[in-house]
């Protein structure tokens, strides 16, 4: 009996050992990397679209899946907390000129032009929601609500905007109900509209996604007269967001 | 001997050690048949809606700064899903919180490296109220901390042990219980019998072909009562006693206001009720899916039809109606649609049923010389209106929902030839050769009555839509999934009605009408344009 048990135990161990084995391959692949990078200029790096851990200095195929490696562009990945971008380089990448003046509707069914009625001459914070989104939108909206309350105590004029990424479902009635649930105060506009208009708006604001549940908890903060725009992660502390928004509002 | 002994021991070990997970896995199936206990069902309400039957507040505190939000905005099911598996969204992946997943004997290691031992009831309480896992790690900051009474928390945990395993009523391994409601007595009794016959035949045929994924459909009937209140009471008892999963083709005309909220409250889906008065106001009753436009939607489509016509531009619309609750609803629909179609507000004239004074009405009405008169009243009143108008050589266009007229409408004065426009929510043109063949085969096989064909087609199409949706949901069936699948219906051809489309905001499958006019000499209806889409 004991012998058989031992055999079983051994089998299990073999299975367990096999797994780290794969990982160790990966480690060795990575450990080879620095020496090659030294010989090549730092700029060009290639990676597998499916296996980001595979990084090579040369074009070629992924050792794991055989896919062609793709050039990595040097872009900064969003940190987990907040992306405060005080550098003017960021504000130059996005500007008010990009925002289309599409026709939209607010939560009361009022027709508005997105840029001229909601952005022009104002400091704004924009988030992206849909009312049937139940996972991140409620905390996102609750955070926005607190931001609105905290901003009210400061001598600043900031408008909040929530743009629906699901305009087909989100009628003004639905937006009104949603706004009511989170006790949104005046100065906070919920926006929907024709799908094509909203789609072009989302494209312009660089938040368009194919699948609405993939929408990101991003907040776009802008001071239109100062031509200053920045982005923040929405699921963070309201205090931090208020700081970022206040900094944007105080820009000249 | 020794060898045999060790073999026996090994066998025992095998029985003890190996099948344990298998036993555990099969155990939920055994309990799935048990209805929820009272405390589990209270817990379910907390899980789904974060409201307590005790009436006590449930509050959620979100994020590092503990934002207070009503729990109902952040119910557990929002993120963890109806089945507890978790609904990933926007980079947040809520955990699987089924009891099996939480109580894995070896605890859990998450993708981010956070480890914790297995959950216990107490551990779960801490996770819900303080946002800590059993190792004392903080949960992701999107997971709120909830404040609720000790009793509510206990109920919730009772339910969490059943989460993902509690089936909706009327579902078992080999059976789906579907209900419908028909009048047994009164003027609609015969129609009720026709509906009963076609529905019974439809599901008998389905069962003879193997049912839906090895489940046969058990069809049950409830009787509607003499008053709406009695109908509601009957149905409430029926849903409870018979454990109805969903309903189809119920004849609820006249009791819509009682039945629709009842179904919403009991969360019983109903597909294709026979009614002229769909309840589709905001907020939507998600459970009820209609086939065709009711009188209000038909009137809207007629307004839209008038607005779209090149001549006259911006037509002036008058509404003439006899007092009734339904007509008041229709009037509101006409007003609203006029606004949407950028027409002026309609002029409204009303009268009491049975007291129509054609002469006086025409005197009043003709002064404003409307292009269109919307008429909602009896066919006799309409005829006397047209006769008096003819005397004054006045013949405005008359609009009315087609379902409400009698055949004597063809006695209208000839000056109204081609001027009376009626709406029909469906037309023979919708019936495809295949659809007709399918229905005829069923009718012959089951010797269906030849009368009340429209009602039969309605009930038949409703059952067809329901079965299509049940098939699309798959074997793992729930009411919520059924509703979600129906909301995804796009241009589904029943073969006998216009194609059916539903959506998150749309509960009328064929939202539009055919407009026909009357050829008074040939005494027949003539199409006055194709399908007027209201969407």
Keywords, please?
heterodimer, A: about 250 residues, alpha+beta, Glutaredoxin, five-stranded mixed beta sheet, three-stranded antiparallel beta sheet, about 15% strand, B: about 525 residues, alpha/beta, seven-stranded mixed beta sheet, 17 helices
Question: Can you characterise this structure?
Answer:
The complex is a heterodimer of chains A (252) and B (535). Chain A has 252 residues and is an alpha+beta fold. Chain A has two domains: 42-84; 89-249, Glutaredoxin (3-Layer(aba) Sandwich), CATH 3.40.30.10. Chain A has helices at 2-39, 88-93, 114-119, 137-152, 172-181, 195-204, 238-249; strands spanning 46-47, 55-56, 70-71, 103-105, 111-113, 123-129, 158-164, 188-191, 218-223, 228-233. In chain A, α4 (137-152) crosses α7 (238-249). Residues 5-41 and 75-92 of chain A have low confidence and may be disordered. Chain B is elongated, with a radius of gyration of 29 Å. Residues 10-32 of chain B have low confidence and may be disordered. Chains A and B meet through α4 and α5 of A and α1, β2 and α4 of B.
Quaternary state reads heterodimer
Low-confidence regions of chain A? 5-41, 75-92
Global Rg of chain A: 24 Å
Q: Give helix % range of chain A.
A: 25-40%
Instruction: Give me the number of helical elements of chain B.
Output: 17
Q: Please identify which CATH superfamily of the largest domain in chain A we are dealing with.
A: Glutaredoxin
The chain pair forming the largest interface, with residue counts per chain, is: A-B, 32 and 32 residues
The helix-and-strand class of chain B reads alpha/beta
How many structural domains can be distinguished in the coordinates of chain A? 2
């Amino acid at each position: 009996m004991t012998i058989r048990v031992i055999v079983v135990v051994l089998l299990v161990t073999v299975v367990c050992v096999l797994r780290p084995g794969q990982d160790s391959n990966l480690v060795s692949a990575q450990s080879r990397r620095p020496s090659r990078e030294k010989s090549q200029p730092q700029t060009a790096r290639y990676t597998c679209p499916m296996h980001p851990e595979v990084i090579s200095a040369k074009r070629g195929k992924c050792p794991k899946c055989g896919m062609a490696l793709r050039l990595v562009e040097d872009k900064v990945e969003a940190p987990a907390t907040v992306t405060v971008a005080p550098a003017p380089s960021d504000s130059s990448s996005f500007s008010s000129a990009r925002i289309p003046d599409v026709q939209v509707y607010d939560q009361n069914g009022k027709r508005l032009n997105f840029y001229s009625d909601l952005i022009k001459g104002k400091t704004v914070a924009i988030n992206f929601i849909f009312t049937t989104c139940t996972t991140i939108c409620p905390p996102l909206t609750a955070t926005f609500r607190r931001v609105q309350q905290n901003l009210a105590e400061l001598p600043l004029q900031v408008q909040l905007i929530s743009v629906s990424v699901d305009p087909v479902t989100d009628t003004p009635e639905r937006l009104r109900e949603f706004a009511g649930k989170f006790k949104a105060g005046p100065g906070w506009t919920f926006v929907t509209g024709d799908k094509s208009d909203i789609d072009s708006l989302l494209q312009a604001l660089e938040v368009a996604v194919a699948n609405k549940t993939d929408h990101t908890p991003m907040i776009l903060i802008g001071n239109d007269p100062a031509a200053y725009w920045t982005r923040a992660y929405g699921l963070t502390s309201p205090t931090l967001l208020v700081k970022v928004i206040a900094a944007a509002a105080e820009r000249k | 001997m020794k060898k045999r002994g060790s073999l026996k021991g090994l066998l025992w070990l095998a029985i003890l050690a190996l099948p344990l997970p298998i036993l555990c896995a099969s155990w939920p199936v055994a309990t799935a048949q048990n209805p929820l206990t009272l405390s589990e069902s209270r817990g379910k309400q907390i899980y789904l809606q974060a409201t307590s039957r005790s009436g006590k507040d449930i509050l959620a505190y979100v994020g590092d700064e503990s934002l207070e939000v009503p729990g109902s905005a952040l119910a557990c099911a929002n993120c963890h899903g109806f089945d507890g598996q978790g609904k990933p969204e926007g980079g947040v992946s809520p955990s699987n919180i089924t009891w099996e997943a939480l109580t894995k004997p070896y605890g859990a290691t998450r993708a981010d490296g956070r480890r914790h031992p297995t959950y216990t009831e107490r551990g779960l309480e801490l996770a819900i109220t303080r946002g800590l896992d059993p190792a004392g790690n903080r949960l992701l900051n999107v997971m709120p901390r909830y404040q609720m009474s000790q009793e509510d928390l206990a109920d919730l945990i009772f339910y969490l042990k059943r989460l993902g395993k509690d089936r909706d009523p009327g579902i078992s391994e080999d059976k789906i219980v579907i209900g419908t409601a028909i009048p047994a007595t009164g003027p609609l009794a015969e129609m009720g019998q026709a509906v009963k016959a076609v529905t019974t035949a439809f599901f008998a045929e389905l069962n003879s072909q193997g049912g839906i994924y090895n489940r046969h459909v058990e069809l049950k009937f409830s009787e509607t009562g003499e008053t709406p209140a009695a109908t509601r009471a009957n149905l409430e008892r029926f849903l409870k006693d018979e454990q109805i999963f969903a309903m189809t083709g119920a004849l609820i005309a006249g009791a819509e206001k009682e039945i629709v909220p009842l179904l919403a409250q009991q969360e019983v889906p109903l597909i294709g009720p026979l009614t002229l008065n769909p309840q589709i106001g905001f907020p939507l009753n998600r459970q009820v899916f209609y086939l065709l436009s009711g009188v209000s939607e038909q009137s809207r489509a007629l307004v839209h039809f008038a607005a779209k016509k090149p001549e006259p531009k911006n037509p002036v619309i008058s509404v003439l109606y006899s007092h009734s609750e339904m007509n008041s609803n229709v009037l509101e629909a006409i007003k609203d649609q006029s606004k949407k179609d950028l027409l002026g507000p309609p002029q409204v004239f009303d009268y009491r049923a049975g007291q129509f004074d054609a002469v006086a009405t025409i005197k009043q009405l003709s002064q404003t010389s409307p292009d269109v008169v919307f008429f909602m009243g009896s066919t006799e009143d309409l005829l006397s209106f047209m006769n008096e108008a003819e005397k004054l050589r006045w013949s405005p266009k008359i609009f009315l929902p087609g379902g409400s007229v009698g055949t004597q409408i063809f006695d209208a004065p000839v000056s109204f030839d081609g001027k009376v426009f009626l709406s029909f929510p469906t037309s023979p043109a919708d019936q495809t050769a295949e659809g007709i063949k399918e229905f005829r085969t069923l009718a012959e096989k089951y010797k269906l009555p030849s009368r009340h064909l429209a009602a039969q087609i309605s009930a038949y199409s409703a059952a067809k839509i329901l079965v299509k949706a049940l098939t699309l949901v798959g074997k793992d069936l729930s009411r919520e999934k059924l509703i979600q699948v129906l909301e995804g219906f796009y241009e589904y051809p029943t073969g006998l009605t216009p194609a059916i489309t539903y959506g998150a905001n749309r509960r009328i499958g064929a939202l539009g009408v055919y407009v026909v006019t009357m050829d008074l000499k040939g005494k027949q209806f003539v199409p006055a344009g194709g399908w007027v889409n209201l969407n």
